[in-house]
């Protein structure tokens, strides 16, 4: 039985499961191949996904979304209980197929369960926290689901709303939050000073956390001391840290009281991209283990709906999957003028990186989820703060944004304080190695990805070669994309990006391309100001 699943609206994705082998065949995200971030499903993605199949699927599955307007979405956004799915038939190209649809909330629950490493029959707790949901669930050995309680409405939107409140450029009255702002708040929290909330901070916490209002009303807070204060203002970064702690503490207090069986915790929803919160869940010791899928946000929703459909038709809700199940790279024609092309030699690339060259790195299929994990990456040496600044200029990002490291799994305890695998870059670690200036954030943390030979043999070999030359199997790793788009996925786009953004070269599978002359671009030697208000003081490393 072949199941083809669609995630509507932002983070549009098409996923295919082979239910007979319980294996993820692919998950194609609409934003990949340089489409705008958070894109809805587009014709290109549909045609590419359909072209991978040699037959019409047996099941078409569609995740629920908002029931707005005419209300054609029969299942909607919320709900886990009976009645939150629809089963029927559809005719596709003259053939009758099964049709399955279930709520968006269910896509998060079954996606995290299906992808988790725990055996079938092991009970689990599930935390679904994202823009709109903030709930705990329990799945028993018979796949029965019990709602353990709602902790907070709209935790993700409340978190992202902080940035909108302080940002003078955010002017929409009662507008929805910007999806990208949550990650910026996470970066800015590191600049907040430790301590208890002052009266202004506590007043905003008391207003924000219990509120069920959506969209959040920025204009109603015009008299707030944080209104348009500027996102880099120290008073705002202190607030961001206090609100972040208050949101986590609300969920932790509930879990400590109500989740007492020691089951593993599965984390799903966009808040699962908050690496500080993930680390804190690990450290609570309330759970036997904690698992966060690499596509914990809505990019994993099509997989989750497919797992839900498989559970309905077969009784099985566990799948085999690989994080590199996205689109294959397109090797279209490129103009090789001004390029030196060499067969891939890991020592040569390592030497280039050690001489402070910044290299695009492409191997095989792209990653599922929003994090570059070594198949669509920009790599650089991790030793210089100037490299951090250069990478943010290349990426056209604010200067306060951190750059993540990638590290040999076997060496993670040498460089970072959390000596456990983190293959999907979803946990904060304290940096122990003072040499790693480019990847050490202002509060001394980093969001490291660990790599083993089995997980990604190409990146493993490069890290091994770099370690032999530098003494550290660590590199800067940030996503290979034009600003505001998903991963680059074709050679012509990569060459255009390299020339425009200021890369020194790039690798595509088994070939190493070096630009013969440094491109004329503002990416080199020109500092980009921080956005939004007063400047943050230099990091204390």
UniProtKB/TrEMBL annotation:
Classification via Pfam families: Carbam_trans_C, Carbam_trans_N
Domain Carbamoyltransferase: start-end pairs: 91-307
Ranges in coiled-coil conformation: none
InterPro entries linked: Carbam_trans_C, Carbam_trans_C_sf, Carbtransf_dom, NodU/CmcH_Carbamoyltrnsfr
Domain Carbamoyltransferase C-terminal: 350-512
Entry similarity comment: Belongs to the NodU/CmcH family.
Record protein name field: Carbamoyltransferase C-terminal domain-containing protein
Lineage summary: Bacteria, Pseudomonadati, Pseudomonadota, Alphaproteobacteria, Hyphomicrobiales
